[in-house]
């Protein structure tokens, strides 16, 4: 089984929106198709800040992954953050997530990132073990967010 990341394009928007709806439903996040469609267009026009890939297995898109970028003095330069990884539920449990993390790490390096990070929800403690197996470390602080709009 060959897993690859294919840069998302305008041709992928409808499938991407369908997959994003699945992710947001699982995560109990409000989802508005038109808002997300606009955000995808913004992302496509901001490649220095965000990259979206379709997760492709044997030429079939089974999910998507998004990296965002910021600068961090603490981590020595460009920081790549896994904003979202989604694999269709029927394709999970086959090691694809591990493969996708490895591919994202390579993409982050290609983009010049020095560090790759991901967030883990308290509601999904199994993700901690998943990230640790992939070489991630937990830092002794939690991010806080403030919505500005």
Give the C-level CATH assignment: Alpha Beta
Strand elements, count = 5
Number of domains: 1
> Helical element count?
4
> Percent of residues in helical segments?
25-40%
Provide the low-confidence segments as ranges: none
**Content of β-strand:** 25-35%
Please name the CATH architecture. 3-Layer(aba) Sandwich
Instruction: Report the CATH topology name.
Output: Aminopeptidase
Based on secondary structure, the structural category is alpha+beta
Main pleated sheet: 5 strands, mixed
Order of helices and strands: EHHEEEHEH
CA radius of gyration = 15 Å
Distance between the termini: 43 Å
Read across the widest sheet, the strand sequence of neighbours is: 1-2-3-4-5
Mean pLDDT: 95
**Superfamily at the CATH H level?**
Gcn5-related N-acetyltransferase (GNAT)
What is the overall silhouette? globular
């Amino acid at each position: 089984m060959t897993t690859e990341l294919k840069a998302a394009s305008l041709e992928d928007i409808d499938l991407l929106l369908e997959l994003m709806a699945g992710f947001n439903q699982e995560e109990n996040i409000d989802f508005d198709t038109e808002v997300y469609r606009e955000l995808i267009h913004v992302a496509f026009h901001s490649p220095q800040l965000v990259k979206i890939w379709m997760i492709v297995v044997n030429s079939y898109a089974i999910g998507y992954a998004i990296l965002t970028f910021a600068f961090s003095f603490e981590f020595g330069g460009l920081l790549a953050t896994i904003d979202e990884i989604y694999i269709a539920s029927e394709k999970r449990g086959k090691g694809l997530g591990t493969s996708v993390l490895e591919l994202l790490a390579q993409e982050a390096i290609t983009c010049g990132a020095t560090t790759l990070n991901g967030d883990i929800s308290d509601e999904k403690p199994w993700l901690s073990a998943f990230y640790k197996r992939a070489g991630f470390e937990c830092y002794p602080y939690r991010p806080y967010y403030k919505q500005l709009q």
